[in-house]
Amino acid sequence: MNQIKMVDLGGQHARIKEELDQAIGRVMKTTAFIKGPDVRQFEEELAAYLGAAHVIGCGNGTDALQLALMALELPAGSEVITTDFTFVATAEVVRLLGLVPVLVDIDPDTFNIDPTKLEDAITSNTKAIIPVHLFGQCADMDAIMDIAKRHNLYVIEDTAQAIGTEYTFKDGSKKKSGTIGHIGCTSFFPSKNLGAAGDGGAVFTNDHNLAAKILSIANHGQGDQYYYEYIGVNSRLDTLQAAILRVKLKHLNEYNEARQYAAAYYDKAFSTNPLLQTPKRNPSSTHTFHQYTLKVMEGKRQELAKYLDDKGIPNKVYYPVPIHANKPYADSCRYRIDQLENTMTVSSQVISLPMHTELSEEQLKYITDTVNAFIALQIRQ
């Protein structure tokens, strides 16, 4: 059996080596490394895939969130509601722009922001909501968009972990994650479902005015050359990364299906395990499994992690510490600790298993047999 990896990019790239070599060679030949034709072509192809009117490439997923917020020009001190259980970038950009993150609790089954907690967090200073589609499935966007509409709030979707995920609304209509709110943001970090060979990100929107503004802000706020309309930044998707992403976008559905197959294998293997809770599905959303995240009951997570380490099975905790419990955010965010019970509990239970496009049946069997063997030992003790 080949060595098990948390993410196997080498195996993935080996299967598309010829396509990647051609794409990279094309850019090297033209030397159009910045704003080359592959950037615009990728943006157009991703827009078509998503069903979005506009896609603007940028330097990384964190930049994408920052560009989205900058384009909205929210007054200093405005409040932006988001989840307490996510990667720090979501709250980080809010603080960087002089805004206030308001952290609310999650649904303990889907790990996504709990829309029933949103309205209690809204004040006269609230201007936006950033739902994070964590681990590969959408938050409850029917409820979130209804709340946003009632309170005249912007919605910025953080879909860095859910590219290609599809949401079905109550009326039966469907949209891809990132195209539901006013703006969507994603990351092309190499380990993402659609990953580059370096940093990269993108912003999506169906609003033509916002798209033009985001495009300008990402290029120093420039309109005509050397004439500036906004305070901007320098954030762009370089041509080599765009060329690589064009190749991988063609395979994205195939990649997501491979992840879903592995997740189904895990689900079946752990379905009767009394100390594990497999990932629950939001019935309105597909799940593209950027991570496969279990909840380990009875305080056994650390013991399981060590057992897996000893057996050569990589594993990871996403995320061991909620945003509010990190030093820079403890006093700079608004939250109520007594209303973050699910986040606190889940952060002490979750563990993620290997999840990528190259997992073999042999590897999946070894992983699941090993996890179940550990649980059987705990029950006998």
Which descriptors apply to this entry?
single chain, Aspartate Aminotransferase, domain 2, 2 domains, 7-stranded mixed β-sheet, 3-stranded antiparallel β-sheet, 12 strands, 40% helix
SS-based class:
alpha/beta
Name the helix and strand elements from N-terminus to C-terminus, one letter apiece. Answer: HHHEHEHEHEHEEEEEHHHEEHHHEH
Give the neighbour order of strands across the main sheet: 1-9-8-5-4-2-3
Question: Roughly how much helix do the residues carry, as a percent range?
Answer: 25-40%
Q: Give the N-terminus to C-terminus distance in angstroms.
A: 31 Å
Radius of gyration: 21 Å
Rounded mean pLDDT score: 97
Q: Specify the biggest β-sheet.
A: 7 strands, mixed
- Overall 3D form: globular
CATH class of the largest domain: Alpha Beta
| Beta strands, count | 12
Structural domain count: 2
Given the structure, what is the number of helices? Answer: 14
